[in-house]
Amino acid sequence: MKKAIIVLLLIAFVSCKTDQGEQFKGDFVYYADAAVFQVGNDIHGVVLNDQVNQIAEQAKAFQKEPTDMVKIEVLGELIPKDENEEGWPYKLKINKVISVSALKENKNDVIKLGK
Question: Facing residues of 9 across strands?
Answer without folding.
Answer: none
